[in-house]
Design goal:
Number of strands of chain A: 11
Oligomer: heterodimer
Strand content of chain B: 25-35%
Structural class of chain A: alpha+beta
Strand order of the largest sheet of chain B: 1-2-3-4-11-5-10-9-8-7-6
Shape of chain B: globular
Strand content of chain A: 25-35%
CATH class of the largest domain in chain B: Alpha Beta
Number of helices of chain B: 8
Number of strands of chain B: 11
Largest sheet of chain B: 11 strands, mixed
Helix content of chain B: 25-40%
């Protein structure tokens, strides 16, 4: 049985996750606005939306104002199965918000051990900053993210913060001694959220993704929270289902770019 | 065992509780600002200020912008920078109106002793019981009339919100069939934060407080989070120690007059 807390974690991961340096979270009855370290839709997320038809317009303006105050002009809106009103996606679209490239994701939960990883694949937490950077290169290439000239320095800082804070870990999968896949775990009181599952394209189909899930399950068990939670797009959902993950909610993702000045 | 997470829960409970209807929370690296259902329900915790004057101005602006006032600033052992208490005083913060300048942050992960069998504890389930419970707390805590009036005015709305908040449970303790004490439990992912805990003068020393603590332990254990944390006034510290609570930290409190 999925508890309300676990359902909320699956549907609203940023609401429950630990805050890192430069992060901020604003919570009220109508929304949670999580702000990460940068002005990018992926790092500014409005979720756990409990609006009424009459409060949608004002809430959009309020979220924009909060972000503008912090020099940010884009965010993501995650409309989960529990969001209200029921036609919120349409109402947000009417305000000019656009569907994400992969807008329909499944909130998935694993509460039993996944199958063991295939032989020949080693999956484990990164051992040092060099492995961390190698893993981030894999993720960057796999996700097709634009290459930022400062990224390596940024990753170094990220590794140091991860080590110091203990809020989560970065895992790698290795084939023949080479890092071929990347995944992260973030620790919450209700379970461990998985993000960033990415495999080097030519190494797909050899079990690296499965091995990463298995390693992070073992880590979650060792922490005393034997629950994995993740959001799955079209590509990862079938694999996760085969590993035992169960869909508990759907989330529709919209991207919101707005101007620096509020409407007149 | 008091884990580091539980320690942080004791020192900064507002950063850990599940947000209830009527509440708003701003959680950032430098502070946690919680604004509750009444304008005076305003607290600032987990202080990691960098530029104290600028950060205080930012927090004060947020408080004012939301129609709140009289924020209580909680300073614990992990508050930063050193000397923050004195700097806040220099910026106008004062002793709290509730005359509680310091609290002991305490916790237990072991079952406390049960109360005496003649004390009956029941969760508050009706508006009448809620009314009874809040009036009892005003009397026991000698709440200033000004704050009682605000509380009474907002009581129906507060009751509506509480009914939608399974993580907050009010309790009444009865001695000889009469309401004698009240308390609340705020059930969070790491355990239960004890709130309230007011006993009428005639009922003191008859086990109502102990029975209320035990009732909240039972509920926390039932929810799979067997830990109790509390920020205890000096008057409650001895009984909590006898019930097995250990001190985790000391808080100092200041109230912003703005």
């Amino acid at each position: 049985m999925i508890s309300p807390e676990l359902l909320s974690l699956a549907e609203n991961a940023n609401t429950h996750g630990p805050l890192g340096p430069g992060h901020e979270r604003i919570e009220n009855e109508r929304f949670v606005l999580w702000m990460g370290p940068r002005d990018h839709p992926a790092y500014n997320v409005a979720q756990r939306l409990r609006l009424t038809p009459g409060s949608v317009d004002a809430t959009i303006e309020e979220v924009h104002a909060l972000l503008r105050e912090r020099g940010r002009f884009a965010c993501t809106w995650e409309v989960g199965s529990s969001a209200t009103p029921p036609d919120l996606v349409e109402r947000l679209r009417a305000h000019g918000l656009a569907d994400d490239d992969d807008p329909d994701v499944a909130a998935m939960v694993l509460t039993a051990p996944p199958p063991p990883p295939p032989p020949g694949v080693e999956a484990r937490p990164v051992r040092d900053v060099d492995e961390y950077i190698a893993a981030k290169h894999v993720a960057e290439a796999a996700f097709g993210m634009p290459s930022d000239p400062d990224r390596v320095e940024w990753w170094r800082t990220g590794f140091e913060e991860q080590q110091a804070l203990g809020h989560g870990r970065t895992f790698v999968a290795l084939l023949d001694g080479r890092i071929v896949a990347h995944g992260t775990s973030s620790y919450t009181e209700h379970g461990v959220t998985l993000n960033g599952g990415a495999t080097t394209p030519e190494m797909r189909g050899r079990g690296a993704y499965r091995a990463l899930v298995s390693a992070r399950w073992d880590d979650a068990v060792a922490r005393g929270t034997p629950v994995l939670v993740t959001q799955a797009g079209a590509m990862s959902k079938p694999i996760l289902e085969r590993l035992g993950f169960v869909e508990v909610a759907r989330i529709w993702i919209l991207v919101d770019h707005f101007t620096s000045a509020p409407p007149a | 065992m008091i884990t580091p997470e539980l320690r942080d829960f004791v020192e900064n409970p507002d950063a850990h509780t599940v947000l209830a209807p009527g509440f708003q929370r701003f959680l950032a690296e430098r502070y946690c600002l919680l604004m509750g259902p009444t304008p005076q329900f305003t607290s600032v915790q987990r202080l990691r200020l960098r530029d104290v004057e600028a950060d205080v101005a930012e927090i004060r602006a947020l408080v004012a912008e939301h129609g709140h006032s009289e924020a209580i600033w909680w300073l614990g052992p992990s508050s930063e920078p050193a000397g923050l208490y004195e700097q806040l005083v220099a910026l106008g913060a004062e002793q709290p109106e509730d005359r509680v300048p310091a609290l002991a942050g305490m916790a237990t992960t072991e079952p406390p002793d049960p109360g005496p069998p003649e004390v009956e504890v029941r969760p508050v389930t009706t508006f009448e019981e809620f009314e009874q419970s809040t009036e009892l707390s005003y009397e026991a805590f000698e709440t200033p009339e000004r704050l009682r009036e605000i509380g009474r005015r907002l009581r129906p709305e507060r009751w509506r919100q509480l009914q939608e908040t399974p993580t907050v449970v009010g309790y009444l303790a009865f001695v000889g069939g009469e309401p004698a004490a009240q308390a609340a439990g705020v059930f969070a992912p790491l355990g239960c934060l004890l709130a309230g805990g007011a006993t009428l003068p005639w009922a003191r020393g008859r086990g109502a407080y102990r029975a209320l603590v035990r009732a909240r332990w039972a509920e926390a254990a039932r929810r799979g989070t067997p830990a109790l944390v509390v920020n205890a006034a000096p008057s409650s510290e001895p009984i909590l120690r006898r019930l097995g609570f250990e001190e985790v930290c000391r808080h100092r409190r200041l109230q912003d007059p703005a």
